[in-house]
Design brief:
The chain is mainly beta. The chain has no helices and 19 strands. The strands form seven sheets. It has a four-stranded antiparallel sheet with strand order 6-7-10-11, with no helix packed on it. It has a four-stranded antiparallel sheet with strand order 12-13-16-17, with no helix packed on it. A hairpin with a 4-residue loop joins strand 4 and strand 5.
Length: 174
Amino acid sequence: LYVCVCRAWHGCCSVLQVVLTHMMLFSTATYRWTNPVNSSNLPRQWHAAAVVPSLSTMVVFGGERDISTGRPECLADLRTLNTSLMCWLPRVTGGKTPAARSGTAACVVKDTQMVIFGGSRGRKWLDEVVVLDTLSWSWTRPQVNGTPPSARSYHTITAVDNKIVVFGGNDRDR
């Protein structure tokens, strides 16, 4: 097993911050860090990532990057990392792509479905559930019943049996 670390902030709030573009792997068997060859990608922060073990793939969605004006740009693109080859591969998806967002969260259910929930775009917080079927690479919006959690960003979602636990985060007031 390994832990994949990619596209995070460097620095702290009191100094100039840089969005990193490289990926590091931490082996849980040897407790050793390595830097895979050809693992760089576009700078990205505050994205969602989930692993689809049956496809040996990590799926990354959304987040933001700095553009030449110095202002952040929300992203709605999808990147996939083949975890066997440790290389990034492009994916074309069908269905209606979710709106660009940062601070969203993702998890995998039913072995091949990546669920995303929440996030924010500018001053708009989101509470929609969107599903990516990683066999057809198509987005859908399931009919959801009940009272949803409040719109939020920078939270976690975790699949537990046939449920998804939404925890933490912030909204426009907190």
